[in-house]
């Protein structure tokens, strides 16, 4: 009689113990997932907002580059080739400010420094530049040849 | 009488065990992550991130090029048609 009862009772208590442990573990996991997804959303939404602004400015920036008013530098920023055009001053400043924010965000994401990201983007801009656009290397302007 | 008391005792022990199981706080030891030596090229990763971020530049350029081709095509076709008509005359 005694031994007959021991087995189901022990089994039942074991099942309850495992169930409770699993539930606790699931709760912890859920809490951790919530934390990580929250931080990811913050980062991606910041980049999304930046991208939207870059997209809006892109046609105007492209036009300024085509006219030879601004050019890309080897530091990853836009610079006036000759004289500053007052009508486009705000646009160029916003573009450079957003580039700084982008380089910082990418550097944080990739665990590197801002300058490295800026130089990578400078190289990318040089590669993508159209023939006749101005590129600045070591403070000197060069016209991209085809 | 004796077997009945012992049965109740075992059952009570079982209930206590169940309740204790429900309230158990499981403490998980910190997981030790073994160091794996992978040569992760940050440069490639940065390039890819930038490329993905500025992908809209490529798509805008493609869209514009397509629009330009479409707008010039009818004019070219008309000129070609006129030339052909002139040849017939």
Write structural notes for this entry.
The complex is a heterodimer of chains A (146) and B (89). Chain A is an alpha+beta fold and 146 residues long. Chain A has a domain at 43-143. Chain A is built from 3 helices and 4 strands, in the order αββααββ. Chain A has helices spanning 2-66, 89-110, 114-128; strands at residues 70-73, 78-80, 134-137, 140-143. Chain A has a 4-stranded mixed sheet with strand order 2-1-3-4. In chain A, α1 runs antiparallel to α2 (89-110) and α2 packs across α3 (114-128). The longest helix of chain A is centred in the N-terminal third of the chain and has 65 residues, at 2-66. Mean pLDDT of chain A is 85; it is low at 34-39. Chain B is an all-alpha fold and 89 residues long. Chain B has 3 helices and no strands. Chain B has helices spanning 2-22, 42-53, 55-88. Chain B is elongated, with a radius of gyration of 40 Å. The interface between A and B is medium-sized, with 34 and 30 residues.
